[in-house]
Amino acid sequence: MIRVTGGSLRGHRLRTPPERITRPPTGRVRQAVFNILGQSVHGACVLDLFAGSGSYSIESLSRGAKKATLVEIHPAARRMIRNNLASTGLEDSCQIIAGDVLRIIPTLRERFSFIIVAPPHFLDLIDPTLQALSNADILAEGCQVMVQHHKSEIPRANTGALARFRQNHYGTTTLSWYAKQTAFPSPS
């Protein structure tokens, strides 16, 4: 189990799927993500790709995001997301989409202000996902894309319209931050 690290649900316990299906971000990593985002999460529409337990979306909503769309292919992970949303009372603020991220992205019609990409390690999904996001018309003005990956995975610095503007390292986890090349957020 993991705990929500901040906002209205701080301390609430979340269940996680078996490790063979997902690898939930540690509290330290989630805390760092939301410290970096600061107030920009308030009112945000969040897209959570490779959603796992839904912890990033739940954390976003706990900290003031307006709604979250979670994409997850594994049925056991989706069941866990539903359980976590029910235990937090956030079901009405979320949409869960079952399926392959690379096939789902082109079908999305909403614009998102924060996108989380946390694919399974070492399956070469980062760059194709960033390319799909770059090709889709779903990035709101000032949208930030955060990619959580293993430190030995090296995603491209530029993929289509997206360019990396920041990286943070936490043990074996690296967070790579992207935005449209013409709309870089100010570095913190």
Salient structural properties:
188 residues; alpha/beta; Rossmann fold; eight-stranded mixed sheet; two-stranded antiparallel ribbon; 5 helices; 10 strands
Could you please describe the fold and organization of this structure?
The chain is of the alpha/beta class and 188 residues long. Helix content is 25%, strand content 30%. The longest helix is centred in the middle third of the chain and has 14 residues, at 75-88. The protein is globular and about 40 Å long. It has one domain: Vaccinia Virus protein VP39 (Rossmann fold, 3-Layer(aba) Sandwich), CATH 3.40.50.150.
The fold-level CATH name is: Rossmann fold
- CATH architecture annotation: 3-Layer(aba) Sandwich
Order of strands, main sheet, comes to: 5-4-3-6-7-10-9-8
> Would you identify the CATH H-level superfamily?
Vaccinia Virus protein VP39
- Counting H and I runs of at least 4 residues, what is the number of helices? 5
SSE order and pairing:
Blueprint: E1 2-3, E2 13-14, H1 27-37, E3 45-49, H2 55-62, E4 67-72, H3 75-88, E5 94-98, H4 101-104, E6 112-117, H5 126-135, E7 139-150, E8 158-159, E9 162-170, E10 173-180
Parallel strand pairs: 3-4, 3-6, 4-5, 6-7
Antiparallel strand pairs: 1-2, 7-10, 8-9, 9-10
Summarize the structure.
This protein is an alpha/beta fold and 188 residues long. The protein has helices at residues 27-37, 55-62, 75-88, 101-104, 126-135, and strands at 2-3, 13-14, 45-49, 67-72, 94-98, 112-117, 139-150, 158-159, 162-170, 173-180.
